[in-house]
Amino acid sequence: MYMNCVVVDDEELPGKILEQLIGQNPSLNLLKIFKDPIEALKYINSDEKDIDIIFLDILMPKFTGFDLIKAIKSPSHIILISSDKNYALKAFEFPKVTDYLLKPIQKERFLKAISKVIARSNNPGNIKEASTSIKEDELYINTDKRLIKINIPDINFIEAKGNFIYIKTLSDNYLVYSSLKKIESKLPSSSFLRVHRSYIINFRKIIDIQDNSILINNELIPVSRRYKPQLLDHLNLL
Predict the structure, then answer these.
(1) Cα-based distances in Å from 41 to 5, 14, 70, 97, 234
(2) CATH (domain of 156)
(3) Domain end residue (candidates: 97, 132, 167)
(4) What CATH number is attached to the domain comprising 76?
(5) Phi-psi category of 206—alpha, beta or left, where left has phi over 0 and alpha has psi -120 to 50?
(6) Averaged over 9-34, what is the pLDDT?
(7) Which among 80, 100, 127, 143 is most buried, taking Cβ atoms within 10 Å?
(8) Which tops the pLDDT comparison, 23 or 50?
(9) What percent of the chain has pLDDT over 70?
(10) Rounded to two decimals, what is the model's pTM?
């Protein structure tokens, strides 16, 4: 069994590199390479096409990769490619994005991205679940014998405090009887990441990363050695 792939990049060299890497992998089948994003969109959205992976450049004429993601109807896995690592945070706001490759594309990172696609494909309903969770942007917490609604995108970070968790939002703070593990299962993985045994962060709120700490809204969050590789890999800042 193989996965059908499409490459969308207005630059010739990255397309050639991907063509070679895909050709070396027996589990992949390259359908077509597009330099024109509009033509690519027509092809991808055709009901007759069964596309498993879309390698999509971010900066292109007429459309950006982000524009294209919003218009793509196919449930394909999307691997974004760019020469600029600064788009990584925005990239993972989209549930369909499985990975983010920096140009020039290295074989080892390419294979790692394909492994991520396979892992998500082996989880039934993973794309559907991701799409649902990103839309369900409200969380209800039980505090002071009341149910209070929190907008998930407003959460900056969550800190474990004994048998309680401290939820820090843009405007309020909440102390809730719960565990990090429990609330982690309620948060979209496209925005939230464990960086310490006592902290989960909304990585869309990151202002800066310095050594073993993250700056979010003028607050320093520690990053443990155990979770730092996961953070760097998730943001493709290697």
Answers:
(1) 14, 19, 11, 16, 27
(2) 2.40.50.1020
(3) 132
(4) 3.40.50.2300
(5) beta
(6) 94
(7) 80
(8) 23
(9) 89
(10) 0.55
